[in-house]
Amino acid sequence: KATGTLLYNAAARLKDPKHLSFLVGYIARREILTDLQLSAALEYVRSHPLEPLDASDFERACGVGVCITPEQIEEAVEAVVSEHRAELLAERYHFNMGLLMGEARSRLRWADGKTIKNEVDLQVGAVHLLGPKTEADLEKKPKTAKARPALVEKQKAAVVENGEVVTETQSLLEQLRGEALKFHKPGENYKTEGYVVTPNTMALLKQHLAITGGQVRTRFPPEPNGILHIGHAKAINFNFGYAKANGGVCFLRYDDTNPEKEEEKYFTAIREMVEWLGYQPYAVTHASDYFDQLYTWALELIRRGQAYVCHQKVEEIKGHNPPPSPWRDRPVEESLLLFEDMRKGKFGEGEATLRMKLVMEDGKMDPVAYRVKFTPHHRTGDKWCIYPTYDYTHCLCDSIEHITHSLCTKEFQARRSSYFWLCNALDVYCPVQWEYGRLNLLYTVVSKRKIIQLVEKGAVRDWDDPRLFTLTALRRRGFPPEAINNFCARVGVTVAQATMEPHLLEACAREVLNEQAPRAMAVLEPLKVTITNFPALKAPEVLVPNFPADESRGFHKVPFQSTVYIEETDFREEVEKGYKRLAPGQPVGLRHAGYVIAVQNIIKDASGCVIELEVTCTKSDVAEKPKAFIHWVSEPLTCEVRLYERLFLHKNPEDSSEVPGGFLSDLNPDSLRIVRNALVDSSVLSARPFDKFQFERLGYFSVDPDSEDGKMVFNRTVTLKEDPGKA
């Protein structure tokens, strides 16, 4: 059984048949016996892709014939335990035993890991050093408090466990530098598992290194047919961040191969969002830049017998078990003539395609390389009526731009074999495709088609409606780019798909905005308060710190007159248990003003609603300390404030088992509340769209682009604290 497992792993991880037969011989003769030896053997084979393998050198590299005795293991573990004896006695069973096993393994590379573990347990445990476990040993080790890192220097990275985030102090760049240990070095593509080596591979890699100088090159290749969303933020951070972390460059390449859906506004918005997140592309390119070269290569693929013109309809070749094409074996000359006819517009849309001769990992057979589309292209006009597909374009554009690491989401793993196949079929430089997990968010939809439905129904205003999780919407709502990058860092560089709660993104926003957003005061539901003994003939101005925790960051002036406005909810006619704000017989302080006010008279309208309070004031330094201080405004600006909640009621609005009526039936009727006559202190008067403030006691707010002279509009980004009901 063990030999069978090794054979299976070798076949799955090594695609070169010549070297595979060499390796199988060692496994079958039981000269390679462990996974450790197999990994070393695979590493050796990948490092020597073309030359005949030196058997004796190979055997030394993977421990063939090396025999580790029980006595050697006992001695190695004894030496390691002796080195850590003092720490073991101090920490007992809370000590990290993996450290001992790792050090023992480093002394005896080919020793069996299970045998080492058993020996460590024996020497440390009940038989020797520590004896049986006590009650104290069984208690969980207390977590040591770590100093919170500076926000600018560190971002909290995390492992996602059961939808929650376990934080560590590791920046995204540090994570991506760590990924470099797993990824191949530029020019060593052949060491990657599954990479196909041809007789020309090494010469092509040599040319590649001469062009790039060994520099890491990545690319971010969005389709310009929609707006980027929160999932794209991870892709941007991964591609641009990996290049930056490893001294490389990243291209922004528009995958503009579908002229029916592409619009100029999407090109502009995509670049804006990349730069908003803090990244500058090394170059901005388009798949259409390479249409001539891609067409030339398509002709070459036909000449090599690796592609053919097919007339099956789209519906015939959909799915995983379509019937084989009856035109698969048509003569090369015939396919060349027909492909030229496709280019000249002699076939209607859907009447002919160019297909490649290969079977992909997911069983899909002969993917389409070119199709007919009589739609003018935004850059090439009417020059072409045939356009290449993603399966054909992606790897060849990577090859042209000498990308070293083609980073894409997990769903493209099924296309990895076609990626390698096509480059090798044309004898061009072949980059390496690496996959990572998608980032998804609950309580939202991000598909272009569904957002268009939301817009058409009037559920949202446009792609940048602040209730959506497109990047333009998040910017409009007031999320700082640093918060989005920090969120991506917390999710981490995972291979598994991560589905996160929105409150985790909101927590990242609070951290950044607490450091960036100056304070102001605003009242959403105003109640007029008249100070009957106002002390000054001329209204004074109050100095309010922009950041109360750090007054060195400046102050702003706020008018203070005999008429002020407070929140309706900060006054009650009767004092209830636990209530600390303004009430008859219960004064409160006015934040930053240096005065305490006490109710003298309550004025009501005909229906009995309180419309005004008359109060007296006393300087704070002589008044009894009040139970609470409240915010207020005087001579305020009248503004519109938009308060947002989740757009959908359920976590997975697209899941028919959770929302049988479809996502459009799951809209939250309270996702937007507009306060049209909120009062905000005049310190915000000069603010411009996207400027951010903390309205004291209310939350973080951002100036909306709808703002006009005389009427500012604010969007609430997040509340000051997380709502426990949303966690």
UniProtKB/TrEMBL annotation:
Residues 517-617 form the Glutamyl/glutaminyl-tRNA synthetase class Ib anti-codon binding domain. Keywords: Aminoacyl-tRNA synthetase, ATP-binding, Ligase, Nucleotide-binding, Protein biosynthesis. Residues 215-514 form the Glutamyl/glutaminyl-tRNA synthetase class Ib catalytic domain. Its EC number is 6.1.1.18. InterPro entries: aa-tRNA-synth_I_CS, Gln-tRNA-synth, Gln-tRNA-synth_Ib_RNA-bd_2, Gln-tRNA-synth_Ib_RNA-bd_N, Gln-tRNA-synth_Ib_RNA-bd_N_1, Gln-tRNA-synth_Ib_RNA-bd_N_2, Gln/Glu-tRNA_Ligase, Glu/Gln-tRNA-synth. Residues 1-113, 116-206 form the Glutaminyl-tRNA synthetase class Ib non-specific RNA-binding domain. Residues 629-704 form the tRNA synthetases class I (E and Q) anti-codon binding domain. It is an enzyme of class 6 (ligase). PANTHER family: GLUTAMINE--TRNA LIGASE, GLUTAMINE-TRNA LIGASE. This is glutamine--tRNA ligase. The lineage of its organism: Eukaryota, Metazoa, Chordata, Craniata, Vertebrata.
